[in-house]
Amino acid sequence: MGSVSLKIGDGTARFKRASVCSSAVNLLMLFSVIITNIFAFYAFTYSPKELHHHHNPKDISLISEKVSIILREIESSKKKLAQMEKDLLGFDTIDLSKPNIPNELKIFLDHHELPLGKDSRTGITEMVASVGHSCGKSEDLLSQYMNYKVNGLCPDDWSLGQKLILRGCEPLPRRRCFAKTIPKVGLQSFPPSLWKNVSEKIYSWSGIKCKNLSCLNSKKLNRDCAGCFDIVNGYETQRYVKTRGKNDFLIDDVLAMGSGGIRVGFDIGGGSGTFAARMAERNVTVVTGTLNIDAPFNEFIAARGIFPLYLSLDHRFPFYDNVFDLVHAGNGLDVGARPEKLEFLMFDIDRILRAGGLFWLDNFYCSNEDKKKDLTRLIERFGYKKLKWIVGEKINGSGKSEVYLSAVLQKPVRVRL
Q1: Separation between Cα atoms, residue 213 and residue 193, nearest integer Å
Q2: Which of 5, 100, 292, 300 is the most exposed place for a label (fewest CB within 10 A)?
Q3: 280-289, pLDDT tens digit by residue?
Q4: Cα(344)–Cα(304) distance, rounded to whole angstroms?
Q5: How far is it, in rounded angstroms, from Cα 90 to Cα 78?
Q6: Could you count the other beta carbons within 10 Å of the beta carbon of residue 141?
Q7: How many CB atoms lie within 10 A of CB 362?
Q8: Residue 234, Cα to own-chain centre: how many angstroms?
Q9: Cα separation of 304 and 92, whole Å?
Q10: Which residues of 383-401 are buried (b: 16+ CB within 10 A; e: fewer)?
Q11: Spacing of C-alpha 137 from chain mean position
């Protein structure tokens, strides 16, 4: 498996726009490097007549001293530019020499020599820890996360780990402790498990305000999950098989658009797993990517007999290229006012979707006209065929109209030149 070194800055990258000030400083530093290099070139190539005739040692010493000064300035400029680049990328390293760094974190981040020396196939000589470089920005939280008793029970701190993930510290470092176990009693067999509730005692409620499903169903956890834990009597029983508006697509209609058939899919931000459940009824395997934001989404999805993937959108999807027949996403695709982040995300969706596969954008909320235009332009850049494209309005709880976009898009076959 590949690995990422925290020290060299690989991992889960974060980007932020460079300000006008920082850009100006960059140009100034670049100009400084160019000027110092010109002076250095001049100093090395200039040969005064007096030097040829008299070979004055003092003149030679003076030139040598000036060249040394110029070289030191060049080296200093290079270091400043490298630091500015790190600052612009938001990258910080973890200083393992600090006294408050737990020993477990030091052991994990240390390079470990391969027991048999250099690997003949990969050429590597040591194993390097795979940790998101943004972990360096949350040193205190990371130290708290890695402070535990080796070979003992892990602290009940899953919410701390999730907080680190949401700050871009992904992947998290591995730990040498045993995770808290909760007896999973009363689980139903598959497929009846898709639409049956089980005991609430099988879920972990630590770090969550609600302590039961009734509480969760009384709240709008996000735009795609309002009462989504009621899989017996709620609207979840009708989703994708009955429509409430023109933006709602029937699952059988979408499956009929699939070229070569739909067998495996990926659902981004899939709520309580109802999309994957509907697909499972049609013999389609769907992986549901989600976090546990205000609810035990992963445990609930697993209890239904569906595959949950604990993953944030800052992480590169852990799938190989061109493997999925369908990718489904709703408002879990929303990354706020970060167009460059959405662009990275769209390229990763395109990467894992096979040619001829479907990208189903389901009731994506367009907070304003600019957001809708930006998303539309981005999608059009990929050259997808629009099999279905609906922009519609819905009335929210306060009586205001909101614009939503739903679409089924087909990935084209791209020929490399």
Answers
A1: 16
A2: 100
A3: 999 999 999 9
A4: 32
A5: 18
A6: 17
A7: 25
A8: 32
A9: 41
A10: ebeebbebeeeeeeeeeee
A11: 16
Angle between helix 20-45 and 57-89 (nearest 10): 160
Rounded to whole angstroms, the Cα distance separating 150 from 147 reads 9
Cα 290 from Cα 306, distance rounded (Å): 12
Cis peptide before 173 (omega within 30 of 0): no
Counting every residue written for the chain, the total comes to 417
SS3 404: strand
| Model pLDDT for residues 144-157, shown as the tens digit of each residue | 999 999 999 999 99
Q: Indicate the DSSP class of residue 22.
A: H
Query: Alpha-carbon distance 144 to 341, whole Å?
Result: 29
The Cα 213–Cα 227 span in angstroms is: 9
The residue type of 152 is G
8: amino acid identity, one letter: I
CB burial of residue 297 (10 Å; 0-12, 13-18, 19+): buried
Closest CA to 279 of 240, 317, 312: 240
Q: Is a pLDDT exceeding 50 seen at residue 3?
A: no
Cis peptide before 412 (omega within 30 of 0): no
Between the alpha carbon of residue 164 and those of residues 146, 180, 201, the distances in Å are: 12, 19, 26
Q: What is the pLDDT of residue 125?
A: 79
The 3-state secondary structure of 295-356 reads: CCHHHHHHHCCCEEEECCCCCCCCCCCCCEEEEEECHHHCCCCCHHHHHHHHHHHHHHEEEE
Provide the token pair at 112: 């470990």
Q: Which two tokens stand for residue 170?
A: 């992904």
Alpha-carbon distance values, 183 to 46, 109, 149, 178, 334 (Å):
82, 33, 23, 15, 35
> How far apart, in whole angstroms, are the C-alpha atoms of residue 299 and residue 189?
16
Cα 224 from Cα 226, distance rounded (Å) = 7
- pLDDT for the residue 8: 35
Higher-confidence residue: 326 or 399? 326
Closest CA to 366 of 326, 328, 401, 409: 401
